[in-house]
Amino acid sequence: MRTVFLFALVGLLFVVTGFTSSWNVALGIFNMGLISAIMALGVNMQWGYAGLFNVGVVGFVALGGLAAVLVGMPPTPDAWSAGGPRILLALLAGAGAVVATIALRRAMRPGWSRALATVAVLVVGFFLFRAILDPAVEAIEAVNPSSTGYLGGLGLPVLLGWPAGALLAAGAAWAIGKTALGLRSDYLAIATLGIAEIIIAVLKNEDWLSRGVKNVIGLPRPVPYEVDLQSSESFVARARDWGIDPVTASSITVKLAYAGLFALVLLALLWLAQMALNSPWGRMMRAIRDNETAAAAMGKDVTARHLQIFVLGSAICGIAGAMMVTLDGQLTPGSYQPLRFTFLVWVMVIVGGSGNNLGAVLGGFLIWFLWVQVEPIGLWVMELVTSGMDGGNPLRQHLIESAAHMRLLTMGVILLVVLRFSPRGLLPER
Amino acid sequence: MSDILNALVAITNFILIPATAYGSQLALGALGVTLIYGILRFSNFAHGDTMAFGAMSTILVTWWLQSQGIGLGPLPTALLALPAGVAATVLLVLVTDRTVYRFYRRAKAKPVFLVIVSMGVMFVYNGLVRFIIGPDDQNFADGARFLISARDFKQMTGLDEGLAIRSSQAITIVTAVIVVAFLFWFLERTRTGKSMRAFSDNEDLALLSGINPERVVMLTWVLVAALATIAGVLYGLDKSFKPFTYFQLLLPIFAAAIVGGLGSPLGAIAGGFIIAFSEVAITYAFKKVAGYLLPEAWEPDGLVQLLSTDYKFAVSFVILVIVLLFRPTGLFRGKAV
User: Fold this and answer.
1) Chain A residues within 8 A (CB-CB) of chain B?
2) Are the C-beta atoms of residues A81 and A148 closer than 8 Å to each other?
3) Which of A149, A394, B74, B152 is most buried, with most CB under 10 Å away?
4) Which residue in the set A134, A409, A413 is minimally distant from B131, CB to CB?
5) pLDDT exceeds cutoff 70 at B334
6) Ramachandran sector of residue B325 (left: φ over 0; alpha: ψ -120 to 50; beta: rest)
7) Measured between CA atoms, how close is B258 to chain A, in angstroms?
8) Residues of chain A with pLDDT under 50
9) What would the mean pLDDT of B163-183 be, rounded to a whole number?
10) Do A194 and B308 touch (CB under 8 A)?
11) Is the ipTM above a cut-off of 0.90?
12) How many angstroms from the chain centroid is the CA of residue A218?
């Protein structure tokens, strides 16, 4: 009952926006709301089911975005012939060094000789990796740097990038989980914070891979282009029949198409998540979360289950990241801010209700809506507060200019208030 | 011979001095994190933004002093403004503790829950700082730029390589030594400091022996606010003040605290220097040094840089991972498991 009512309320927010500003804006917010809901679903699996504290969401989202580019963009044949195979060789060498280290550590007995051998293998591996990689990178980035300068992707349908994003994020999550899970819970938080910073740094600086801060633009779309719709006679005729301007109609149609695709993914994931939560596996997860010692005593492998759910949740964040890049049609590594992604998604989960999938989805929509709308509201409040001052007053000008930063403050306050007075969120776990 | 001297000077100039200054800043930051961990038993994600707030308050007072024409001559005016900045930050964290943390402390909430709460606090501080001073770079350093400038050093010694010590670096190191000495004197010698250590070591025993927990917690926050402000101001003087960089400092600071052993003040200092030296040395381009030391035929073409400076976070991260894998309690056997 409460669920239905709250969802209706959030739906009403979007409808009101549709009527008061425009349906185009409302749908734009709604589409990002769908993506936010998926991210919140992923984080809710980790925190709500298992009590894992992941503050690297932004990194997994960015990896998903990279996957969409690597799958969807057309390849750059010149760049591939200039250095593609060498890049692959370098990556193989790097992976080989890591595998060799692990094998070595398994084979040798602990002691000084093993430590020395480990360091030696790693150092040699690193220099080998750099020796092969550096010239290849230079060659690739020299190929038409203003428009490509990177390897490009596989040229496959961009929709395939979504599962690829999940895989990429899952891989990173596995590596980090192997290291930090099983230790104190805060350590996972700090380790994920670190891996996220590194992933973003790689995306910003490895131009051969992601064009760095030059951004990848013009990703192929899974839905028609506005321009094509506007030049299609049947579409224009239909828009006229409905009495809508064809330009508006085309952008709304495109947004609706995206909304349909995203809603499909969200519903599928939500269904899976609900099934998982209500299965014996879900009960085991909650048992582990509530009392690790007791669960371990019952023969549950706590660390392995944690790793499993950490990988799953991160994979979902990866899907959301790939979807977002698809929606934007571009990858802009400079825009991946931890405050905007990681921490906002956390606010969504906590406010919505941790442990409840529907709650996470609700939080995703609600908080995203607020995040977008707080800025104009803040501006309005500031103008109201300062309306008594005269126009040239420096304090007034400062307040109005700073209204944009009201967002972080508001989100922080919302998070603290919910944690204090309703720590189970809007839709508590049953 | 002079080649070797030149190489040594270059290493001192580009690695030893900057890393010592950076290490002092990290150590001060990590001390704050480790104190909170020791007494309040959670990882404070708001620490970077506490530093930003402290630096910001100091900057505002500095600007006011500068506009009044008050200064310290060759020393930066910010040092004069520091007490005011510390006071503002102490006030902020005490208000935060009263309104936010105390509730969870009384409810005996799980540590990870407190970490999430500190994340909310981080959001608020971050918004506050951006709201008051904006997200952009702010410059507030004044006074003499250099203690020794590269040109003076070259004239003095006749070497090709210059050695510059910026006054901000010298001030950082001197201040850090004074602050750390005071902190250790306080913790080791005073009655209050001893009660704090007792509380950190064994809360129940400390409570039994009549230590007032609220007083210990309050004192911890005061110390943490002072440490955070000093670290923030020194970092701002040395590099520049930008709210987002302070958020990013969270990773090296946590890495330093964990490497040293969470809860161990000595470990925090050691960790700070380990992280700083590795970061600076690994991201430094050794081309110049190699040019002095190697015969001409062997001179490298590239920069001889292990990692580009864009990846400096990777260094703290890798050190962190190594410590987590092989010695999760840190070098100085902190309390974490």
Assistant:
1) 51, 53, 55, 126, 134, 179-180, 183-187, 189-191, 193-195, 197-198, 201, 204-205, 338-339, 343, 346-347, 350, 401-402, 405-413, 415-416, 419-420
2) no
3) A149
4) A409
5) no
6) alpha
7) 9
8) none
9) 91
10) no
11) no
12) 20
Domain boundaries, chain A: 2-75+152-421, 76-151
Amino acid identity, position A105: R
Element at A330 (helix H, strand E): strand A330-331
Residue type at A367 in one-letter notation = I
**Is domain A2-75+152-421 classified as CATH 3.30.450?**
no
CB B138 within 8 A of CB B241: yes
In the 8-state DSSP scheme, what is residue B166?
Answer: E
Residues of A whose CB is below 8 A from B254:
190, 193
What token pair was written down for B105? 């402390």
Record: contact A406-B317, CB cut-off 8 A: no
Percent of chain B surpassing pLDDT 70: 97
In CATH, the architecture of B2-326 is Orthogonal Bundle (1.10)
Beta bridge partners of A216: A331
Q: What confidence score (pLDDT) does residue B337 get? A: 40
Nearest to A190 by CA among B129, B148, B45: B45
* Token pair 């549950």: residue: A300
Tokens of B259: 């490497």
C-alpha to C-alpha distances, A338 to A56, A57, A334, A394, B310, nearest whole angstrom: 8, 8, 11, 32, 17
Domain boundaries along the sequence of chain B: 2-326
**To the nearest whole number, what is the mean pLDDT of chain B?**
88
Q: What is the DSSP string of B69-118?
A: T--BTTB-THHHHHHHHHHHHHHHHHHHIIIIIHHHHHTT--HHHHHHHH
CB A386 within 8 A of CB A396: yes
**B228 compared with A226, residue with greater pLDDT:** B228
Nearest to residue A413, comparing CAs of B111, B125, B93, B91? B125
Q: What interhelical angle do B17-40 and B213-238 show, nearest 10?
A: 160
Name the maximum alpha-carbon separation found in chain B.
73
The total number of residues shown for chain A amounts to 430
Helices (H), A279-355: 280-290, 292-297, 302-328, 344-352
* Nearest residue in B to A175, CA atom: B321
End-to-end Cα distance, chain A: 13
Kindly report, residue by residue over A309-330, the tens digit of the pLDDT.
999 999 999 999 999 999 998 8
Token pair of A242, please?
């409905």
Distance, CA of A373 to chain centre:
21
CA B75 to chain centre: 20
Is residue B258 within 8 A of residue B336, CB to CB? The reply is yes
Calpha distance A291→B183 (Å, rounded): 39
Report percent pLDDT > 90 for chain B: 41
Most trustworthy range by pLDDT among A95-109, A310-324, B125-139, B304-318: A310-324
Distances in Å between the alpha carbon of A78 and those of A152, A156, A219, B181? 10, 18, 19, 61
Taking the CA atoms of residue A376, residue A382, residue A383 and residue A389 in that order, the dihedral angle to the nearest 10 degrees is: -170
Report the SS3 class of residue A347.
helix
Question: If pLDDT is split at 50, 70 and 90, which confidence band does B336 have?
Answer: very low
DSSP state, B12? I
The CA distance from A274 to A36, in Å, is 18
Strands B165-166 and B146-148: antiparallel
- What does the pLDDT look like over B45-87, one tens digit per residue? 999 999 999 999 999 999 999 888 888 878 888 888 999 999 9
Burial of A198-225, coded b for 16+ CB within 10 Å and e otherwise, reads bbbbbbbbbbbbbbbebebeebbbbbee
Angstrom distances, CA of residue B61 to CA of B56, B66, B222: 9, 9, 20
Q: Residue A204: name the closest of A59, A35, A55 by CA.
A: A59
User: ∠ CA(B117), CA(B121), CA(B125), 5° rounding?
Assistant: 170
CA B319 to chain CA centroid, nearest Å: 17
